[in-house]
């Protein structure tokens, strides 16, 4: 992919808030979806005459459907609390990547058409007409937000820029301006069953190959079952787990956990994807339809539990939205949470003493943990608030001897996005992705220098893919990133080979 | 009755009407608009009591702002806390007899006036000194601060420089509440002070001052983290299930 040359930011010994550099990222735009991609998922093919009125009408519709958007359009006081919280601002200095300025791109239009002050005194309150110039700015900067919600942690009113970005993308889609990467993937998940477009035979073949590899590694018949009716557990995992490194190592880890615990499980070729890009484009119906595949697969296979693999935004949709979108789940085993995260699943088994580990197997690794934004700030694990921070770390500490957290302020709820979330994991946005990774890279550098950390575990397919790509830009080895279940798979005891 | 008193009486009736009706319309809009998905910023409380505590911390202590920017928090909290004391102090103009708590607060309210203006000045300084905040500041942001500072300074001037006839003022205010307009003292400072307060009430529902009620309706703060336990379906979303 040809991308214009850009300079990778320098890692500083301590974080520095950049000075405002107007227009620094004005050139960053994703590819526009073709009319075929758009119409395929029910959006107009391209911008046509009168789009301005239709965009404003759509905004009105969303203001009536989402209290979040309605309140957030009114509540901002421009206090600037969020202004130094976005990784894309910290990495680029472009002021329109400050959450408040990003929101204001929409707020200006909102004021113009939906408020008294904006209708009558537009200049005074920064109200603007919906024009092509405004739309161009929307296109640039609503595609420079990874919907990570870090700003919402720090906003005194809880204004969540992700809600605004989602609404903006929904409005743009509704007038025929869609993002190629995200919308192509949504087409694929409906047509083939997963984001990578892996058809059933290829998937079956891959899983067979994994069984052989694992047998070779361990001498044990660890199964990777597909479409097994009557299995106890349906595992829904990001499709990257089937084909990408280091993702597949975690899939092997899940399989070993099921094997060791003696719990029957299956993957589904129909629901061979946990990811749900309907979230990224802010489209409720897409999000629901993509979720429905999982329900249909689970019903058809007659499973009793659903477990989600290592995927951040998938976990947000599953944990926070599934019950609402496709629930109730009274047809599943009520003794377990629905859905359950693979980390909750493994942690529960560890607590009950059902798994044994040889921690020394991970002695070559000095581990840190990157909290993925959607897990950290938009979901939970376990029964306690904050369980999403505790459980993955508990698992790591159960399977590895050496663990060091990154600096406070860069982990837990204040974690930095990997730089590739929210539908931005595409090569046409590579500069943005590299620069947006800066705050995380600085925090990582610190524990690398301080403690010799050589492995950053995470539980998100996008984080893994993004870091594999951008770590080398900052002088790190791409194999420094991997999954929590990659570590689990390495250390788990499977019994004696037969 | 002088034309001036009648004009100010009319102004206050109008401002109060706009304030109340405007706020009611806005809040009605928030109430009517569903929150179709569970989006609390996590870690979030799992119980209603927990949510009430989280909201209380936000409203009373500005918890999130504290995490975010200590300078903004210091100035913002100082201003809002002082404003509360000043408002409580002013209740004496609307009560006869004056409630004991309002009597108690009088002394603090006087000096809170200085804290209020100092806080506002700090907030305003950030709009010039911090380049990021300078970038996002609009004319409306500056005017809001100017308006509040002018209200504070005109009020302080009447307390410390040029006294007004507070007894007559109180008679005017009590009269307004009984729909019986009394003469209003005519010092320019008082007229300025009252005019600006009326302006503040008028712009409240159509401006960023809506952050005050807005906070209570913010789904990232006021929702409990119970998404696995309970469905949370909006009427328009439920309609999709019938398709």
How would you characterize the overall build of this protein?
The complex is a heterodimer of chains A (498) and B (243). Chain A is mainly alpha-helical and 498 residues long. Chain A has helices spanning 35-40, 51-65, 67-75, 87-92, 99-114, 116-120, 122-125, 132-141, 150-154, 161-174, 180-191, 200-218, 240-243, 247-261, 284-301, 312-326, 342-351, 373-378, 387-399, 430-436, 438-451, 461-470, 484-491, and strands at 233-236, 265-266, 305-308, 340-341, 367-369, 455-458, 481-483. Chain A has a four-stranded parallel beta sheet with strand order 2-1-3-4. Chain A is globular. Chain A starts with 34 loop residues before the first helix and ends in a 7-residue tail after the last helix. The mean pLDDT of chain A is 96. Chain B has 243 residues and is mainly alpha-helical. The model of chain B has no long low-confidence stretch (mean pLDDT 96). Chain B starts with a helix and ends with a helix. Chain B has one domain (3-39, 63-209, 234-242): Up-down Bundle (Fumarate Reductase Cytochrome B subunit), CATH 1.20.950.20. At the A-B interface, helix 2, helix 3, helix 5, helix 7 and helix 9 of A face helix 1, helix 3, helix 6, helix 7 and helix 10 of B.
CATH architecture of chain B: Up-down Bundle
User: Which range does the strand content of chain B fall in?
Assistant: under 5%
Oligomer: heterodimer
Main beta-sheet annotation of chain B: none
CATH topology of chain B: Fumarate Reductase Cytochrome B subunit
Helical/strand content category of chain B: mainly alpha
Name the CATH superfamily assignment of chain B: Transmembrane di-heme cytochromes, Chain C
Structural class of the helices, strands and pairings of chain A? mainly alpha
**What's the helical proportion of residues of chain B?**
over 70%
User: Low-confidence segments of chain A, ≥5 residues, pLDDT <50?
Assistant: none
C-alpha end-to-end distance of chain A: 48 Å
Shape of chain A: globular
Total domain modules of chain A? 2
- Spatial sequence of strands, sheet with the most strands of chain A: 2-1-3-4
């Amino acid at each position: 992919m040809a991308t214009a040359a850009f300079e990778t930011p320098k890692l500083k010994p301590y974080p520095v808030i950049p000075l405002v550099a107007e227009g620094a990222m004005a050139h960053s735009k994703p590819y526009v979806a073709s009319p075929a991609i758009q119409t395929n998922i029910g959006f107009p093919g391209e911008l046509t005459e009168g789009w301005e009125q239709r965009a404003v009408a759509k905004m009105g519709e969303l203001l009536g459907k989402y209290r979040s958007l309605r309140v957030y359009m009114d509540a901002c006081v421009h206090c600037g609390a969020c202004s130094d919280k976005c990784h894309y601002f910290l990495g680029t200095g472009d002021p329109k990547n400050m959450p408040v300025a990003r929101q204001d791109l929409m707020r200006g239009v909102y004021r113009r058409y939906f408020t008294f002050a904006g209708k009558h005194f537009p200049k005074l309150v920064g109200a603007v007409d919906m024009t092509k110039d405004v739309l161009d700015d929307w296109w640039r900067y609503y595609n420079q937000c990874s919907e990570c919600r870090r700003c919402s942690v720090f906003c005194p009113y809880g204004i969540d820029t992700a809600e605004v970005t989602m609404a903006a993308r929904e409005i743009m889609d509704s007038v025929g301006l869609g993002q190629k990467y995200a919308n192509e993937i949504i087409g694929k998940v409906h047509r083939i069953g997963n984001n990578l477009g892996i058809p059933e035979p290829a998937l079956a073949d891959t899983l067979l190959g994994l069984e052989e590899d694992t047998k070779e590694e361990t001498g044990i018949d660890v199964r990777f079952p597909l479409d097994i009716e009557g299995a106890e557990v349906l595992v829904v995992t990001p499709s990257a787990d089937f084909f990408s490194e280091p993702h597949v190592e975690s899939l092997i880890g899940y399989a070993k956990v099921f094997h060791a615990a003696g719990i029957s499980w299956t993957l589904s070729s129909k629901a061979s994807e946990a990811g749900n890009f309907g979230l990224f484009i802010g489209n409720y119906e897409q999000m629901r339809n993509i979720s429905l595949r999982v329900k249909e697969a689970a019903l058809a296979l007659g499973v009793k539990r659903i477990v989600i693999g290592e995927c951040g935004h998938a976990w947000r949709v599953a944990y926070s939205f599934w019950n609402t979108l496709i629930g109730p789940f009274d047809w599943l085993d009520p003794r377990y949470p629905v859905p359950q995260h693979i980390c909750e699943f493994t942690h529960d088994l560890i607590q009950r003493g059902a798994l044994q580990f040889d921690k020394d197997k991970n002695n070559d690794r000095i581990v840190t943990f990157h909290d993925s934004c959607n897990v950290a700030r938009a979901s939970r694990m376990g029964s306690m608030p904050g369980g999403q921070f505790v459980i993955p770390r508990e698992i790591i500490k159960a399977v590895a001897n050496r663990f060091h957290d990154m600096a406070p302020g860069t982990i837990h709820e204040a974690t930095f996005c990997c730089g590739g979330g929210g539908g931005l994991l595409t090569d046409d946005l590579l500069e943005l992705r590299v620069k947006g990774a800066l705050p995380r890279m600085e925090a990582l550098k610190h524990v690398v220098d301080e403690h010799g950390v050589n492995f950053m575990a995470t539980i998100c397919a996008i984080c893994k893919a993004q870091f594999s790509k951008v770590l080398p830009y900052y002088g790190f080895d791409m194999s420094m990133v991997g999954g929590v279940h990659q570590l689990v798979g390495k250390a788990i005891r499977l019994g004696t080979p037969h | 009755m002088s034309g001036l008193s009648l004009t100010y009486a009319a102004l206050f009736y109008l401002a109060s009407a706009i304030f109340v009706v405007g706020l009611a319309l806005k809040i009605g809009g928030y109430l009517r608009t569903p929150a179709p998905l569970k989006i609390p910023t996590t870690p979030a409380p799992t119980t209603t009591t927990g949510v009430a505590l989280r909201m209380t911390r936000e409203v009373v202590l500005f918890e999130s702002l504290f995490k975010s920017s200590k300078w903004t928090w210091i100035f913002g909290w100082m201003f809002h806390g002082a404003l509360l004391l000043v408002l409580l102090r002013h209740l004496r103009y609307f009560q006869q007899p004056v409630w004991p708590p309002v009597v108690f607060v009088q002394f603090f309210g006087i000096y809170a006036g200085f804290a209020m203006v100092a806080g506002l000045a700090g907030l305003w300084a950030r709009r010039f000194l911090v380049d990021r905040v300078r970038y996002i500041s609009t004319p409306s942001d500056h005017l809001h601060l100017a308006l509040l500072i002018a209200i504070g300074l005109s009020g302080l001037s009447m307390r410390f420089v040029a006294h007004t006839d507070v007894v007559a003022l109180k008679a005017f205010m009590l009269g307004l509440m009984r729909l019986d307009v009394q003469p209003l003292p005519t010092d320019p400072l008082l007229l300025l002070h009252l005019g600006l307060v009326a302006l503040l009430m008028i712009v409240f529902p159509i401006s960023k001052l809506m952050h005050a009620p807005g906070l209570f309706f913010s789904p990232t703060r006021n929702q409990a983290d119970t998404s696995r336990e309970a469905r949370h379906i909006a009427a328009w979303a439920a309609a999709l299930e019938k398709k």
